[in-house]
Write a structure and sequence with these properties.
The protein is α/β, with parallel strands linked by helices and about 325 residues long. About 40% of the residues lie in helices and about 10% in strands. The protein has two domains: about 160 residues, Rossmann fold, CATH 3.40.50; about 120 residues, Helicase, Ruva Protein, domain 3, CATH 1.10.8.60. The longest helix is centred in the last third of the chain and has 19 residues. The N and C termini lie far apart (about 60 Å). It binds adenosine-5'-triphosphate (ATP) and magnesium ion. Magnesium ion binds next to helix 2.
């Protein structure tokens, strides 16, 4: 029983990651709910897909619902469906996600955001497979395996009265906690390599030149608050911005917003500068300021390109000759 080919592979080789994979494979075939916990971008959704496709339900629907994306009442009609005339605008009867997942699995993302009323109904489905559509008193029977995910501490939520203890007990038959990337550093090189290679292929490069030692040290030293989603972006961006398929990638643009022209936090767009501005720079002469900024950008780009002027020019969106002219202007040309 193979997972569909379009499923992205789960990459990793750290002991912590392999343990998660092992637990996932063992829990998958069980007809029990599973709770997947982890920070944003750690791969919870991929784990949920793996749980479904390695289960006996793999050829039945895997339906997804994000409990944080909908307001309370809409979430209930989404989950449980409604009868015609159940509320204004409900012209026709509509099946909910539980009904659509019948025989398969329902991935309930951000489960902590389900309202108390929804939690109560979810509990009843998990325990007895019973539900009523909104606006109906007829009981329907469904056979759905619930896979829930969250990035909050659900036991603490339950202690605080924000999440039902009984539902938590039922959902937590097995709990898979995905460690953040900073807690499994061995995965950083393989993930960066995997995503970098894929980007090189997408760009039509004949081969992937890899990351330099220095770039890899930068990758390893970064805390990755956005976890795997972030390293995917960073690795792809590094390849694409490097734009030189022959030399190993030596610059990691972690922050795509980094720019001397980035607006200051809290500055309303289009509004006049606040009355109490930061202390005025020594010079307010526009040309002097732009000259200074240009010089710094040139120096940064040259440094990141290890003084390879063709690479630096490409990174700056300049032709080789344009770059040479500007370097000359700033007296940077003969420095190495
Ligand atoms: N181990 C992994 N190997 C390869 N790709 C991964 C891995 N883990 C996550 N990804 C990729 O990282 C991205 C984020 O993964 P996913 O959406 O599963 O995270 P999540 O934990 O559900 O995040 P969120 O909490 O923000 O919803 C996706 O593009 C996914 O394909
Ligand atoms: Mg997710």
């Amino acid at each position: 029983m193979d997972a569909p080919h379009d499923l992205p592979p789960l990459i990793g080789q750290s002991p912590a990651f392999l343990e998660v994979m092992e637990l996932t494979s063992r829990a998958a075939p069980l007809e029990r709910p599973v709770l997947v916990i982890g920070e944003r971008g750690t791969g919870k959704e991929l784990i949920a897909q793996r749980l479904h496709f390695l289960s006996g339900r793999w050829d039945k629907p895997l339906v997804k619902v994000n409990c944080a994306a909908l307001p309370e009442t809409l979430l209930e009609t989404e989950l449980f469906g409604h009868e015609a005339g159940a509320f204004t605008g409900a012209a026709r009867r509509r099946a909910g996600r539980f009904e659509r997942a019948d025989g398969g699995s329902l991935f309930m993302d951000e489960i902590a955001n389900a309202s108390p009323a929804a939690q109560e109904k979810i509990l009843r489905i998990v325990e007895y497979g019973e539900l009523e559509r909104v606006g109906s008193s007829a009981t329907l029977h469904v056979d759905v395996r619930v896979i829930a995910a969250t990035n909050v501490d659900l036991p603490a939520e339950a202690e605080a009265g924000a999440f039902r203890h009984d539902l938590l007990d039922r959902l937590s038959f097995e709990v898979i906690t995905v460690p953040p990337l900073r807690a499994r550093r061995e995965d950083i090189p393989v993930l960066a390599d995997h995503f970098g290679r894929a980007m090189a292929r997408e760009l039509g490069w004949p081969a992937f030149p890899g990351f330099s030692e220095r770039a890899m040290a930068d990758l390893l030293g970064y805390p990755w608050p956005g976890n795997v989603r972030e390293i995917k972006n960073v690795a792809e961006r590094a390849v694409y911005r490097w734009a030189d398929e022959e030399t190993s990638i030596d610059a990691i643009p972690f922050d795509p917003f980094a720019s001397p022209f980035r607006p200051a936090a809290g500055t309303p767009s289009g509004a006049a500068a606040p009355a109490k501005a930061a202390p005025a720079p020594a010079s307010l002469d526009l040309r002097t300021e732009l000259g200074r900024t240009e010089r710094r950008l040139l120096e940064d780009a040259l440094g990141a390109a290890r003084f390879n002027q063709r690479v630096a020019a490409r990174r700056l969106g300049l032709s080789y000759d344009q770059l040479r002219n500007r370097l000359r202007k700033h007296g940077l040309l003969e420095r190495r």
